[in-house]
Every structure is written in C-alpha cells, then in structure tokens.
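Sample intake sheet
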Amino acid sequence: MKTLQPTEYTYASARIRSLENRLVGRERTEILIESRTPDEVMDRLAEYGYTLPEGADGTVPVGEAISAAREAMLLAVLREAFDEVEAAVPDRSLFRYFRYPYDCNNLKAAIKCGIRGIPATDLLFDFGTVPADTVEALLREGKYESLPPHMAAAVPMAKDAYDRTGDPRRIDTVLDNACYADMLAAATETGDATLISWVKAKI
C-alpha cells in the first residue's frame, strides 16, 4: 500500500480550488429551487455560465430538442468535472470509487430493463468505471470481470433476489450494498484516513 504524500497533490489542490469558483453554491442553489419552470432554471444557469450547446448549424435547440439538449448540457458538466479532477491528480485511480455509484446505477437499470425486455440505453450514465455501452452486453453474457469485485459478485444475487420475491427493490438493495463495499475497499487501499472516513460518512 502506497503512502500518500500531500506534496504530490499541491497542484491538484490548487487546480481544484480554482474550479470551485464555478460551482453553484448554496445561495445560488436556493435561487434555482425557487424557479417555477425549466426555462427559469436554464435562464439562471446561463447567468452562472452554463449554457446550451449550439447545434451544428450554430443555432440553439428549440421545441422537442431542447429537453435532450438540457440533459446533455448537465451531463457534460458532470463529465467535465470528473475529467478535470482525474487529470489534476498524480494517480487517476485514486478517486475511482467516485464513479462506482454510476456503475451501480447502470447495473440496476440494465437488469430491470432486461426483465421488462426493453433497452436501458437512455437510463445509463457514462461516468462509471465500466463503459455504459457495454453494460447490457456483459449482463447478457454473464461476464462480470470488468466490474468492481463486490458488484460483480452481487449481480447474480440481485437477479436471484428478484426471482424469489418479484420485488425490484431487492435489486437496488443488493447492488447498493455491494457498491458501498466496493467504495470502502477502494478507499481503504489508499491507506488515507481522510478518504476512508469520507467514504464511511458517504455510506
């Protein structure tokens, strides 16, 4: 187990601190909560620097396309945040457990959609450690090696729990517990008390 050296993260700390200026803090969040329509929310987000991407023809989407564009914008912000943090630190794998909840979400969505016989594509987030576009295939093929270990072991148990009870919430419970175990294991590997305590508080 490698001991983390704070001096190795001086640049990362300064870089992330500068990015905090772009965050929507408590005061701005409360203003967003008071918004009455999606348009009001987007207008206020635009004031904070978050705007809809332009189309290929240079126009802002309207009508039915605007909902998809809004979601794409917010997901892009989240993706950028992950990329920025991981690019700033010496060891990108150090914070991989931040991505585990997205692996968990994708597994739950794919299993439930598989039961219903519908695609899960629109419910998957591409922020996990496993590419979202491979999740449904690995479930069909029963190849779980690329998943975090506790979640890999939990997939058959989640399916069995549903088969026995018919309750889709059992899928959530089994996989959530496995996700927490993977997060704690990954944090424990760092040997850093601060990271371990943060994960425990998160759990």
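Comment: The chain has a mean pLDDT of 88. Residues 65-88 form the longest helix (24 residues).
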